[in-house]
Structure formats: structure tokens, C-alpha cells
Specification:
Length: about 220
């Protein structure tokens, strides 16, 4: 019996839970595009054309964002992801030679295709997921595209046993994402489920304006 290497939930024989495996797949899919945006941030946004000309001719101060330049020149993101690809391949196919560097997009795609095995058989799956999450966060701080924050929706109103026990766990979701209780697994689908969820919130703890907004049901266009 194992615990998820990232969230420490019980995962049975696996090393990474289904949720964190899905999140890792999404991060690997996004990472090459995010890293590709770094070139657009080499020049600080506050610098206009006139300022660049003055800087280039009048003194040693560089108009280049040196933090971005260092990150790109060191190929830190690509090197880290490639090292994980090398290690996964060594664990899965120990008789194969190490893969040559072939670019961030190729390495991310390769790891994505091996996620089922990684989650089930790779003891370092949690460390891999944690480092990819850190790389995405590092790049996002530069390109100004922060990870969406989860919305709190209220409390789960699902009945969990024949005695009528209500789950009561806190519900949250990413903006526009599905609503599913992490505690009891109840999924709230469609307008009816969301309206019932809003209606049956405990009276002593009515939904906040943010929660009500997150649960707002908009009529569909005909």
C-alpha cells in the first residue's frame, strides 16, 4: 500500500494518485508553450523604443531582462525535464541507451505518453510531479500567467449512508471546471445539481458572495 508521492493520499499499489497524474499531464502539455513565451519577456515591458535607443548608446545598463536571459541560456527547464526522461527510461528499459537531447516539447510529450507506467511503477513519480509543478510556477511568474486559483463553492450536501448522514466537506473547483467532492466523490453535474447544492447549503453558513458567484447558473442560449 502506497501514498501519493505528491498529496500523500492512499493510492493502493500506485505511486501517484489519479488527480495528480492528470495534473502532471496537463502541466507537461502546457510547459513547452509557456517556456516558448519567455522570449517575449527578454525586454522589460516598461521600456519603450526611445528608452531602448538611449540605453544602448549612453551607458552599460542593459535593457535585457537578465533573469529571463539566464533562464533561457541555461536551458534550465529543458535540462530538468530531459533528466527526468533519462531517468524514467533507465528505470523502465535499463538496457536502452540514454535518449539524446531532443527539445523540451519532445521530452514533455514522451513523459506524457508514459504517465500510466510512471504513476503505477515509478517510485520517484511524486518527485517528478513536484518538480514539473515548480518549473511551471517559475515560468508563470515571469510570463505573468498565474495558475488559476480554486473557487470555494460551499459544503457538500450529498447523503453518504442510509442514516441520512450529510458529507459536509468543503467543495472547490477551478474556474469553469467540474464540481466533484474530494471526500465522498459525489459529482454535481448540470444546472439542477448546482441549484440543489446552493439551495441546501447549511443555514448557519450561507454561501458568501464569491461562492454564490462561483455557483451562478446562467441560462443556456437557444
Amino acid at each position: 500500500m502506497n501514498l501519493c508521492g505528491l498529496c500523500e493520499r492512499d493510492t493502493g499499489p500506485a505511486y501517484l494518485c489519479e488527480r495528480d497524474t492528470l495534473l502532471l499531464a496537463q502541466r507537461l502539455d502546457r510547459l513547452p508553450d509557456l517556456a516558448g513565451e519567455l522570449v517575449d519577456f527578454l525586454v522589460p515591458r516598461r521600456s519603450g523604443f526611445g528608452e531602448l535607443v538611449t540605453v544602448r548608446t549612453a551607458g552599460p545598463r542593459s535593457p535585457i531582462n537578465e533573469d529571463v536571459l539566464d533562464l533561457m541560456q541555461s536551458n534550465h527547464v529543458g535540462e530538468v525535464v530531459h533528466s527526468w526522461r533519462v531517468d524514467v527510461q533507465r528505470e523502465r528499459w535499463p538496457h536502452h541507451s540514454a535518449p539524446p537531447p531532443d527539445g523540451l516539447a519532445t521530452d514533455c510529450r514522451w513523459l506524457g505518453m508514459e504517465l500510466e507506467w510512471i504513476a503505477a511503477e515509478y517510485p520517484a513519480a511524486g518527485d517528478l510531479a513536484r518538480e514539473v509543478r515548480s518549473l511551471e510556477g517559475q515560468v508563470r511568474t515571469i510570463v505573468g500567467d498565474p495558475v488559476p486559483r480554486r473557487q470555494r463553492l460551499g459544503l457538500c450536501v450529498a447523503v453518504t449512508d442510509d442514516a441520512g448522514t450529510v458529507c459536509g466537506a468543503v467543495l472547490s473547483r477551478l474556474p469553469g471546471g467540474p464540481v466533484r467532492c474530494r471526500s465522498c466523490g459525489c459529482a454535481y453535474k448540470g444546472e439542477t445539481d448546482l441549484l440543489l447544492l446552493l439551495h441546501y447549503q447549511p443555514q448557519a453558513s450561507p454561501p458568501t458572495p464569491d461562492e454564490a458567484g462561483a455557483l451562478e447558473v446562467r441560462p443556456s442560449r437557444v
